[in-house]
């Protein structure tokens, strides 16, 4: 169990708060979607209202990527969402950062620079080593406590996530607390338990499928999206050149053998699409698996209505459903049906849990809601849903094992 904000004496305490606001960025280099910022409003408002001195730490994008930008527009948007001034400081652990943090008064909030502007932050370390990085050694001396609210990054063993709680008392923020409460007790959720694996991250999904079937966590795994296409090919279905080329181009060709091995081991429990939707004459056209391959150039873009009916029947008996990844190319109106209908059917299950950032935005776009829990995390949620520990949570649970570096 980790301590939470209920265990922290906030007033007058200088708190480093790690949040996950890794978001889509527009062509102008500015924040294009604020969903992840909204998620942290409760934690930050509570710390501000309780008189904390709040220094926010977060990453944005990956080095070299288009979304690797500063957190200045995030700070502006946070200020609007919190209805409270939030200053931006373009430093993370230098003298300038330390001075800004030391100057905080009760109820003040600042956002420090993108942690990944600093190279060690993009590496994974054991917590003790992470605690010796420049970021932690530079900033920890001016902090009294560390709050981790960045559930969506908790599968990364990076300095801002595992280093600070190794030298400072650590607490789970409200997002982290709610995610751990729901996803941490997956073994106790009502059975039968069904995992629906769609989307495009085929290797991750196959890892999850193996893990939950081996551990006896899943009664059934339903496949959809690119994941479903890979399983169909593994089952000997000819999906045609367009879908096969797509899978090959994504570097997922070897996954077909892994999917085939999984079908050999757990075929009874793994459900495959019975039909797919392609684009023909500018319209959605459904083809039964027995009538495949499609015509030249046609790709399987969604699951079809027979698959939906089949999956809906399986979901009727489920106690818990865990879903990750859209069932098709939901961005295209002709191929959003599978995702909308399947996820709608899932909301009727006693316990319905959704993981994945793209999935959450697909559901917002399609207007589907009513789930028991929509996770803020993609990779982190998947890892928890297979009952695997998250390094950042383990570091919080273990508590400080090293002395806080001194401010000299
Ligand atoms: N049949 C298909 N062919 C091609 N692309 C597909 C197909 N089905 C789904 N997709 C694509 O999968 C993408 C989303 O998959 P992804 O695995 O990234 O979702 P996610 O797990 O919610 O994401 P994350 O956790 O990274 O936020 C969408 O862009 C969608 O268009
Ligand atoms: O968006 C995410 O899944 C988290 O912020 C982690 O980002 P990363 O995959 O770049 O480490």
Automatic annotation (TrEMBL):
Keywords: ATP-binding, Cytoplasm, Glycolysis, Kinase, Nucleotide-binding, Transferase. The gene is pgk. This is Phosphoglycerate kinase. Substrate binds at residues 20-22, 36, 59-62, 116, 156. Transmembrane segments: none annotated. GO terms for biological process: gluconeogenesis; glycolytic process. GO terms for cellular component: cytosol. InterPro entries: Phosphoglycerate_kinase, Phosphoglycerate_kinase_N, Phosphoglycerate_kinase_sf. It comes from the Archaea. Belongs to the phosphoglycerate kinase family. GO terms for molecular function: ADP binding; ATP binding; phosphoglycerate kinase activity. It is found in: Cytoplasm. The keyword Chaperone does not apply. SUPFAM superfamilies: Phosphoglycerate kinase (SSF53748). Pathway: Carbohydrate degradation; glycolysis; pyruvate from D-glyceraldehyde 3-phosphate: step 2/5. Monomer. ATP binds at residues 331, 356-359. (2R)-3-phosphoglycerate binds at residues 36, 116, 156. Its EC number is 2.7.2.3. It catalyses: (2R)-3-phosphoglycerate + ATP = (2R)-3-phospho-glyceroyl phosphate + ADP. It is an enzyme of class 2 (transferase).
């Amino acid at each position: 169990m980790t301590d939470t904000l209920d265990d922290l004496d906030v007033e007058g305490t200088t708190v480093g708060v790690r949040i996950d606001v890794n978001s889509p960025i527009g062509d102008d280099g500015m924040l294009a979607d604020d969903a992840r910022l909204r998620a942290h409003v409760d934690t930050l408002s509570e710390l501000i209202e309780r008189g904390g001195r709040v220094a926010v730490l977060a990453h944005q994008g990956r080095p070299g990527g288009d979304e690797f930008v500063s957190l200045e527009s995030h700070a502006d948007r946070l200020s609007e969402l919190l209805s409270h001034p939030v200053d931006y400081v373009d430093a993370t652990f230098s003298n300038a950062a330390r001075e800004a943090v030391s100057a905080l008064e009760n109820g003040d909030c600042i956002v420090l620079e993108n942690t990944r502007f600093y190279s060690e932050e993009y590496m994974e370390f054991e917590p003790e080593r992470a605690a010796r990085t420049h970021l932690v050694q530079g900033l920890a001396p001016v902090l009294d406590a560390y709050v981790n609210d960045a559930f969506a990054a908790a599968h990364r063993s990076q300095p801002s996530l595992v280093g600070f709680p190794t030298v400072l008392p650590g607490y789970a923020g409200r997002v982290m607390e709610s995610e751990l409460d729901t996803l941490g007790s997956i073994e106790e959720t009502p059975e039968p338990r069904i995992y629906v694996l769609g989307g495009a991250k085929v290797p991750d999904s196959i890892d999850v499928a193996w893990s939950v079937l081996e551990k006896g966590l899943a009664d059934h795994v339903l496949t959809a999206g690119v994941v479903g296409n890979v399983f169909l090919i593994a089952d000997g279905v000819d999906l045609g050149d367009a879908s096969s080329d797509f899978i090959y181009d994504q570097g997922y060709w070897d996954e077909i053998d892994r999917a085939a091995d999984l079908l050999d081991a757990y075929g009874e429990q793994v459900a495959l699409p019975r039909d797919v939707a392609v684009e023909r004459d500018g319209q959605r056209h459904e083809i039964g698996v027995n009538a495949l391959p499609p015509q030249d150039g046609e790709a399987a873009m969604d699951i079809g209505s027979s698959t939906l009916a089949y999956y809906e029947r399986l979901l009727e008996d489920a106690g818990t459903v865990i879903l990750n990844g859209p069932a098709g190319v939901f961005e295209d109106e002709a191929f959003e049906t599978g995702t909308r209908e399947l996820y709608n059917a899932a909301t009727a299950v006693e316990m319905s849990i959704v993981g994945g950032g793209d999935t959450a935005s697909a559901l917002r776009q399609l207007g589907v809601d009513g789930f028991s829990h929509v996770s803020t995390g993609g990779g982190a949620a998947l890892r928890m849903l297979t009952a695997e520990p998250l390094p950042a949570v383990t570091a919080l649970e273990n508590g400080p094992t090293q002395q806080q570096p001194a401010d000299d």
